[in-house]
Structure formats: C-alpha cells, structure tokens
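Notebook p. 47: complex prediction with zinc ion.
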Amino acid sequence: MKEKIFYSKEVKHYEGLGIREGASCIVRLTNYELQFCDIKKRPILKINLKDISNVAIISDKELIEKDKSVIGRGIVGNVLFGGAGLILGGLSGLQKKQIIQNIDYLVVNYKVNGEEKVVNVYANEGVIDNTFMKALNYAVDISKQELKCPKCGAVYNFNDYKCKNCGTVLKDTKKLKVFVGILVGVILFFVLIVGIALSVGGGNPREVNVISRVTNVDVDKAAEIKNILEDIGLAEFDDMVADSEILDGIEGEGSKGYRIRTDFSDNVILYLDSNNNVICVRFADEDYYRNGNVLKKFE
Ligand SMILES: [Zn+2]
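Predicted complex, structure tokens below:
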C-alpha cells in the first residue's frame, strides 16, 4: 500500500533524534508510521505504529508536580519521559517555581528490539492539537490488534485496504480513512470559513466592516455612514460600540447612539435614526454633522 501522509507539523527537537536541541523538525503521521523528518522532509526516524508503546503531551508543570520518586525514573504515569523527566524531577521546591515555562512536550515511547526508547519534541502553542493526538492514538491502537479477514481468516495489516488472500475490503482501514477524512474535512471546513470571511470582509475598508458589524446594517449602508465620517475628518477610527442604555432615544424616538473610538477620544458619538440614516455626529457637545450638513471637521 502506498504511503499516505495524514498529518504533518513542524516542531522543535528536545531529545531522542540525535540532532541539536531546539532544531526544527517535522512530525508526520502516515498510514504506516510516525516519522520525524528534518525541515527538508528527509526522514530522521521512522517509527512503525506497531512499535509505539505510548504517546502523550505533557507540560513541564505536570512533570514538576509529579512525585519525585516517580520522576526519578523518568516515568510519568506510564509514559517514559527520558532526560527531561530526570532534570525537572530533580529540582528543589524553589527552583521548581521558577522554572515552569508552560512548555508542552510531545513524548513518544517506542520499542526497538525490545528496548524502550523515547523521542521528545516541544509541542507548544497548540502545534500538536487534540485531533492529531486522537488520530495517532487511534492508529497506534488498531495497529496493535491482531486483525483477521472476516471472510477467509487471513491475518492482515491495519493499513491494508484489501485482504491479500481473498480481496475483501477491510473495515478497519475504512474506519481509519473515515477518521482521517473527518480530520481533513474539519481542516477544509475552517479553510473555507476563513476564505469566506476574507472574501466577504476583504474588499471593504476595515471601518466599513466595523460599522456594518456594530450597527447591524448591510455593507452599502455601512459605506454610506463611513463616507459621512470621512467628510468630517474621521476617515480612520479604531472601533465603535453601541451604547443603547445611555444614548438610544436621545435624538428622537427610535434613534440609536454609538461611541466611536478614535486615536484622540473614545467618545465621538454617531446617532442613527430607525432607518439607520445618520442624524448627527457629535463630539464634546458640538455637532460635526447634522441632517446632511458638515458643520465642523476633525483636524
Ligand atoms: Zn480474506
């Protein structure tokens, strides 16, 4: 079966790969293996999923808070932590408080000829997310099961799509595919959402989007309001907030007031009527705009 890469993320090396600590590397989940590659995607270490005994994400805080005697052996729960466990576990109470940096590690325990080995990479800031861990755990789990073809009983590998003996399509592979399909689906969904957000918001000035969002008007109306603000010298502003409790109704029944945050004040006030037409723009008790007329300009 052809190798497929389900997941690929850039991380930083801590230990176990024989390269410098902090060096960038890539962790990849394929249908056969968990791979660690250099940044040119050349494999440094390929671990067969079947040889993985444990995977976990552990923070330095969790490591330090574990019982010292447990850490002394480099073991957290049933995860062998390697050198970092020894170093962090051996600290005094005072040192412990100072050293917590909220570092997350992705720890992988695997066996080579019966010998337990550890690879450990920095996995900070959500680089390795839950979806990856779920997929990896799932892949590791099913890679260990003794799988027999339901039709002919021949043993197959979890990543075999069809039974080599009788050609039956095997459901575990389908399950993994569905799982990874969901993963890809979720990613595509977010790409799509971001794409839509960019295409909707992308063509308009930021201020138009702010007006549209805060006053709940369509983009054309928001552009109209922005033009009026521009006419009185407020081409740019930081933000706008509705203040219905204090401002609504002040300029007549159904009128609504919004505070515009600029670089000089957060109290330039825009009043809209019930049809979202601009009644006036006021600042420091003065009209800058009213009923279609520019009365004053912000310098
Ligand atoms: Zn078969």
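Notes: The two ends are 70 Å apart (CA to CA). Residues 149, 151-152, 154, 163, 165-166, 168 surround zinc ion (CB under 6 Å).
Next step: compare against the earlier run before touching the bench.
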